[in-house]
Amino acid sequence: MKIIPKKSLGQNFLIDNNLLELIADLGEINKEDIILEVGPGTGNLTEKLVHKKPKKIIAIEKDKNLCSKLKEKFYDEDKIKIINDSIMNIDEEKLINNKMIIYGNLPYNISSQILVKWIKINNINKICKKMILMFQKEVANRIIAFSNTKDYGRISILSSWKFRIKKIKDIKPSSFYPKPKVESTLLLFEPKDDFFKINNAENLEFITNTFFNQRRKMIKNPIRKIFKNNIEICNKLNLNENYRPQNLTPYTYYKICKEYENLIN
């Protein structure tokens, strides 16, 4: 059966052997490790991961035809479990009782949604050892952006809340089949054990949405919208109302979120 990539699923299969080797090596896999691979596609990376001899590989593939192919190629069910589903439907906390190394050449159309889903897992640091993920370069730039830069925004703040993130390298379209129209970027995520305690990740989403919906306006507008005691909050957190949303550090947003949680609880 010939594999025809599906645009609707954002399928671009990684075919660069050197790059596949590099990605597999980044996991520093040992024989006790559990691997979660998202979107294995034709199994090119899966094959490299198998050679690392982890304890188990769980591969989540939404495409039914590709799932059948993967099950033919990797038939040892004790070592490799292939699940035909969307990662958005998977409850990672119930998947396995162990820390996982997560690999993903994420479909570009929902890559941010997948990342935010993982960020919102309360104990992500308890179930995830590290994540090696591929994004569209433009999205990766937003994930790793610092305050006071044009790419800085909601996803930068959410990502740095629970992860230390390292850019590994940019990747040309020629490394994929079919070639995407954009460059990609490989990122390495390591969960923080000491991340800022926020009761509900959706509150941080609300705060960042409120601020960055008008990213060119001064922050006095969202602060007044969220807090009736806006002057008291500004004094307490040493906020300059004339700043723009991109001028505030992630840590400042976490503190604003905590004040909001104190208000609504």
Question: How would you describe this structure in keywords?
Answer:
265 residues, alpha/beta, Rossmann fold, Helicase, Ruva Protein, domain 3, 7-stranded mixed beta sheet, two-stranded antiparallel ribbon, 9 strands
**CATH level-4 homologous superfamily of the largest domain:** Vaccinia Virus protein VP39
Q: Strands of the largest sheet, in order across it?
A: 4-3-2-5-6-9-7
Shape, per Cα inertia axes: elongated
Helix coverage percent of residues? 25-40%
Low-confidence stretches: none
Number of helices, where a helix is a run of at least 4 consecutive DSSP H or I residues = 12
Oligomer: single chain
Report the major sheet.
7 strands, mixed
State the domain count: 2
Care to count the β-strands?
9
Amino-to-carboxy terminus distance = 57 Å
Radius of gyration based on Cα positions: 20 Å
How does this structure look, described?
The chain is α/β, with parallel strands linked by helices and 265 residues long. The chain folds into two domains: 185 residues, Vaccinia Virus protein VP39 (Rossmann fold); 64 residues, Orthogonal Bundle (Helicase, Ruva Protein, domain 3), CATH 1.10.8.100. The protein has twelve helices and nine strands. The strands form two sheets. It has a seven-stranded mixed beta sheet with strand order 4-3-2-5-6-9-7. β2, α2 and β3 form a beta-alpha-beta unit. The N and C termini lie far apart (57 Å). The model has no long low-confidence stretch (mean pLDDT 93).
